[in-house]
Amino acid sequence: MNTGSDPIRVLYSFPHKLGGGRIQTTAWEQVKGLVQAGAQVLVQPAVLQVPVPGDPVIQPTLSRGKLRLPYRVLGTRRTCELHDRIVAHRLRRLAGKIDIVHLWPLGASETIRTAEDMGIPTVLERANAHTRFAYEVVQAECQRIGVPLPPGHEHAYNPETLKREEEEYNLAYRLLCPSEFVVKTFLDLGFKREQLARHFYGVDERLFYPGPQKNGKNPFTMIFVGVCAVRKGLHFALEAWLKSPASRDGKFVIAGSFIPAYEEKLRPMLSHPSVQVLGHREDVADLMRTSDVFVLPTIEEGFGLVCTEAMASGCVPIISDACTDICKHMENSLVHRVGAVDALRQHITTLYEDPALLFRLRHAGLCSVPQITWKAAGVKLLDLYGEIVANYREERSSRIALASPAPSDQMSVSQ
Questions:
Q1: Do 36 and 180 belong to one domain?
Q2: Are residues 195 and 285 in the same domain?
Q3: CA 250 – CA 358 distance, rounded (Å)
Q4: 250 Cβ contact partners less than 8 Å away, ≥ 6 residues apart
Q5: Which stretches within 44-124 are classed as H helix?
Q6: Looking at residue 214, what is its pLDDT?
């Protein structure tokens, strides 16, 4: 086994396309950061979409060359289960060669059981809050404002998904939580603090960087970026914006695609002349560079990558406390309680009327960027692996010692 002086040997299992969009990009950046930090990484994704710099060993489970098993053949859940079985089977042949296994939801339970049998600690990524909490809070807000979720939506209640994910939560040695908000949702549902390990997601500073400081002649601009759904709280942002004097001569730019029922519900506010709906955009970094503030009044979140992307672009975040705790109130951001529209309105108005505060928060955010890059996140995660491996081995040794008969018992038996 690894003695502690050699690189930590990681099996990184990802049941989706590594290097696609959303969490697929998050996982890709995580692997890249781990390689840069010096980990010895064996990556087993379902499919490799984009090559990873540093050439880690990559062994896809559901593709070979250009041949891929389409997710629509088995459905997402069963495809993830197939990936899990393949990784578990491969792990059995890696005895003594892996120090820790990093897994993602819906493709983890069998691999976790196999790792435990082999004496290997497992960590399960929690890119979002506890799924039970997410289902309940999103459903409650949808009912409150009268917007139903489309069939099959990722936040529509799915008992099979919830059952599988909760099984994985209970099996994993540690749950990797990227924010204190995620931690709290697990604590509130009975998990112990020691089961939850804190890390964070990074920002690509080569893509997200500041433009020139605005000279005050251009209109004050607030931007929202993301899927326009009830969960993200865009309705709170629109209500607060239209109540703020910023809406008289400023711009509220919305970059993202809408759930149709949600767009219809918000149409009266979206039609205001200060609001610009751009739809899905690929030039998000450019849009952030030309905006003053970024708003995300989400009611449920895992980390909120767009928050740190805005910060790195010189765009001050105005966010709810469900987002990343890297954003600190009155230090580099303004943070309000979930659903507190009056506080959100005041925060928008404050930055609209106080350019000096806007400049100070912008500067502080930019100064923090070197500590929140994906490279820095990789170093943090690798250090966390080391702590988890050490704790696991100590606990396992203690369990073995307790299970072994005492010397006096052995003597009495031999006598």
A1: yes
A2: no
A3: 15
A4: 219, 220, 221, 222, 274, 352
A5: 71-74, 76-91, 109-118
A6: 67
Alpha-carbon distance of 107 to 161, in angstroms, equals 11
- Model confidence at 353: pLDDT above 70: yes
Residue 86 to residue 80: CA distance in whole angstroms: 10
Label residues 394-412 b or e (16+ Cβ within 10 Å = b). eeeeeeeeeeeeeeeeeee
Contact by Cβ (8 Å): 239, 224: no
- Please give the angle made by the CA atoms of 160, 163 and 167, to the nearest 5 degrees: 140
Q: 198 and 170: one domain?
A: yes
Q: Is residue 24 part of a domain?
A: yes
N-to-C CA span, the chain = 37
User: Given this model, what pLDDT does residue 152 score?
Assistant: 81
* 269 falls within a domain: yes
pTM: 0.93
What is the distance, to the nearest Å, from the Cα of residue 363 to the centroid of all Cα atoms in its chain? 25
Q: Residues 62-84: what's their mean pLDDT? A: 88
**Residue 297 near residue 319 (C-beta atoms within 8 A):** yes
Q: Is the same domain home to 34 and 78?
A: yes
Range of 30's domain?
A: 9-202+373-403
CATH code of the domain covering residue 22 = 3.40.50.2000
Q: Are residues 364 and 398 in the same domain?
A: no
Tokens of 188: 């509130």
